[in-house]
Amino acid sequence: MPKGQLAVPAAAFVTILVTVLEPATPVQFVKGIGPRLSEVLAAKGINTVDDLLHYLPFRYEDRLNPRGIAELRAGEMATVIAEVRNSGLFRTRRMPIFEMTAAQGRSRLKCIWFNATYLRDKFKPGQMVALYGKVEQNRGELQLVQPQFEILGEASEDGTPEATEKKVTESLEIGRIVPIYETAGQGSLTPRWFRRIIRSTLENLGPEVPDPIPAMVRNRLSLISPREALWRVHWPEAGESFDDLQSSRTPAHIRMIFEELFFIELGLELRRRRQKAQTGIAFRLDENARAAIKKILPFHPTGAQKRALKEIASDMEKPSPMRRLLQGDVGSGKTIVAFEAAIIAIENGYQVALMAPTEILAQQHYFSARTILEPAGCRIVLLTGSLEDDRKREIRRHISQGNAQLVIGTHALIEKKVEFRKLGLVIVDEQHRFGVLQRFKLMKKSDPDGSVAEPDVLVMTATPIPRTLALTLYGDLDVSVIDEMPPGRTPIVTRRVGDDQSEKVWEFVRKQVVAGHQVYVVYPVIEENEENEIKAALKMYKELANHTFPDLKVGLLHGRLDSELKEQAMRMFQQGGLDILVATTVIEVGVDVSNATVMVIEHAERFGLAQLHQLRGRIGRGAAKSYCILMTGGKISEDGERRLNALVRTNDGFQIAEMDLELRGPGEFFGTRQAGLPSFQVASLIRDRQLLEAAKREAGAVLAGPNAEVSQEEIDRALRHMRARWQRTYGLAEVG
Fold first, then answer.
1. How far apart are CA 418 and CA 397, in angstroms?
2. Tens-digit pLDDT profile for residues 640-669
3. pTM of the predicted model as reported, rounded to 2 decimal places
4. In sequence order, which residues have a C-beta less than 8 Å from that of residue 268 and are 6 or more positions away?
């Protein structure tokens, strides 16, 4: 038996090949694929017939109208049907070149393929051949280089015009709009291979089942049927708009994109409604709680902070669990709102857990909480992975006995050994830095006998999330936005300069320090290496401390320092013991020093847009005017220019987030798998924003039924389809 084939009886194998294909059929049973090629397809995420049919063309080529050779012009893409006159393989010092001459009467056209020894016996004089490629001119002669081709008839066959026309009509390569697919298996599975396999799969697909999208939705959006959409997206009809095809806006594309988004939003809406139906804690917002909140406020809250707290408090009073996202720009005052929510839970006799992604941020929250909440009598503990075992055990004991009212920590909070006595509120900061299931693990922490109801959850992020991402990434959460900065904040002035201006920058830094202010200097790496010309934090710390600013107090902070040294550096900077803090992006979140007025970012072109904005947010926290200086070195890419110019142009984190999404795409915006962003087959969160909004609206309308517009049977069918696809296709866990 040849290697890689299935060991099945011949009769059984024949049965597999003639069986009508279903969407769930493994691709290895599709004729022409088999076990070996199915492994290649699996690397592209293609495991079933449904996956294969959702492997859409990334572009199309218009091969509808064959051209006469005499009409061709250099530089254009053209389809030519001609007769083979001669062909041969020529060897040069560099590589073998295969040449074939095709003709229409007296007009001739040379075709060239490089390294194409496999074509040696392919063409015979007299054959009719269809060719498609870019027309080039060489020494006054037109030619096609590496053209796509299809032999329409052997020399001995009927060569009449009628026979040739029939061949063109039946061709998958010529005389039509042709789909172009990404190759797979290091080029072994070509676009031509995908065209043949996908066409065959469509022809052998089983009868169409009832449409899983309810009729009222289909009618409102004028959606075509699933089967028609599959055929037309892979094999567009002659009258289809070429522009709509290239921009994925044909009726076929819209149907497939909307369907994918609709079932994601249906699942998220269902999860939201289930959460609302769970038994939660109805917190009392009485006079004691209100008095405690007023006592901790260090300043008069902004209107946006008041609005956010009102929304949170309203949720906490309800008997169903709160699931709310609190987002706002850096420095907008989310933490104080979270502490106010914590006071409500604590005043009701419950514990609060606040989980942060890094030890530095957890420590920052701990110091802030002690300053703000301890005077009100709150008992606060910090639990991180770097603590000594004896200290961890002592803290865990206080948590389990209920002595600790506010527990602040990192991933250490979700370890099995950590048990809460009466957990009422979970706060997750910088949620996008955690895996999708981690907040749910923390949610499930409660007393061992399970008598405490589901805790409320408040998710915070200082990375403003474009609405399209919020609808999918946090589609099961209600959203509060703090879109107003605290009073007295002066807009940060942002400038970009080349590193040839460094002396002027350091002169400006010195003036700021002399004026009584502090400065951050940030580098993208800790240490240099021989292949990397990027200035490193360690080297530049020594340079700045010993040569540029020998008379000033310069400190160093980076991720490799142990926690004690990190804490020492941060405390010194916060207390004014350091004039300049040289750091890596470890200070990106959580560091709050109101006296710091300058942020110098070296090699700013190496940072992401959101990261630059986060770093800039470390300054401008006091009344003094603040400055962010973007120093660049070396060649800057086009995207790098756009990032830097955007940062200079605006301080608005929401505008920056939208631009960052455009530049990087959703997968890189947060890190798809880490954030729990769905794996889309056909939709694009950037391109398909309006369809996403429509999908969310229609999902809510369907689940509001049954009613005159949608029947229970249609709702059940939609939910069955959603559940079948939820985990496998969208990569989302059915949790919460």
1. 9
2. 888 899 899 988 877 787 777 777 665 555
3. 0.69
4. 472, 475, 476, 699
